[in-house]
Each structure stands twice: as C-alpha cells, then as structure tokens.
Specification:
The protein has 5 helices and 6 strands. With 196 residues, the protein is α+β, with helices and mostly antiparallel strands. Helix 2 packs across helix 3.
Length: 196
Amino acid sequence: MLSTRNTRRPGWVAAERFVPLLLAAVLAQPLLHPAAVQAATAAEILRGANAALTKLYANTPKAKELAAKATGILVFPGVVKAGFLVGGLFGEGVLLKGGKAVAYYNTVAASYGLQAGVQKYGYAMFFMNDGALQYLDRSDGWELGTGPSIVIVDQGAARSLSTSTARDDIYAFIFDQKGLMAGLGLQGTKITKIEK
C-alpha cells in the first residue's frame, strides 16, 4: 500500500513556495528596468569583442597563438550570470573570421541549486577546424557539451598549450571574471544565431 504522507522536510516545503515568488520577481525585472535589458547593436558587440580579444591576447599570449591558427573565433564580451536558487545567464557575441564579423549569436543558460550572486564575464571560443565551425552553422541552438570537443583553458593549461599540441576542435577562454558567483563553466550553455 502506498503512503500519501508528506515525507519532505519542512525546509523544502518553504523553498518550494519561495521559488515561484523568486521566478516572478526575476521575470518582472525587464518591466521594472527596461533599459537594462536592451540588446546591444552589432557595432557595440563588435567593439566589445575586439576590446576583449586585445585584452585577452595581452594577458594570455597562448590565446593569440591559437587565434593565428583558428578558422573562426566566437567572442561573447559581456555575459551576465545571476541567481538565487534559480539562476540564468545571457550575453551576445560575434563570430569573427579573418578578423571580420560574419555572424552574431547569443548565449543563454538556466540553472538551479545552491547559488547566489551576480557575475559578469566574457568568453572566447577558438574554432580550430572547419568541421567544428560547420557544426555551429548547422545548429539551430547549440548546447555546449554536445558536438565538437571543447577544452576550457585555465591558467595552468594555458602554460602548457602550444599550437603543435592543440588537437581539440575548440578552445575556450573565460575572462574578466567579476562578481560574487563562483564555479564558472560552459556545460549546458546554449548558443543560438541571431539577426543584427
């Protein structure tokens, strides 16, 4: 016989009631601050991407070496991640081929769990072969973690990386991390082409 007794802890019941209120508050933010969520223009995104790459190359020379061999570089100069139990991230970026903008994308993700804070950062993805770049073109919303292999390059990996040992499809650098939230990763992030 199945029991209908509530076996959840009292704290979870309170959290379940709080989540819908939090979600409503998050969804109301665009109504309260419409200027804060306006999309950037193509020129603003490109300007931000070029500035971010210049800074990345100055701080991480290995990124500049990879850029010389990459078939394309997808740069998201300003991604905002925010959350309190329920969280999300959003940013807009540009795909560069030969230093020229060829397409624009957004990056989004949602998450839940123990998290609190706001963080702003950027990331650049160096596509090292045509197959990886074609996968991006063919995808109608690419969820990172599926498809081509991606290596997140941190300080330690950057020291040992060279263009002769770079065998993966994509190398990603996360930069300008500012804020209170920790544990950045790209797994589960969705990238979708947009019109600008």
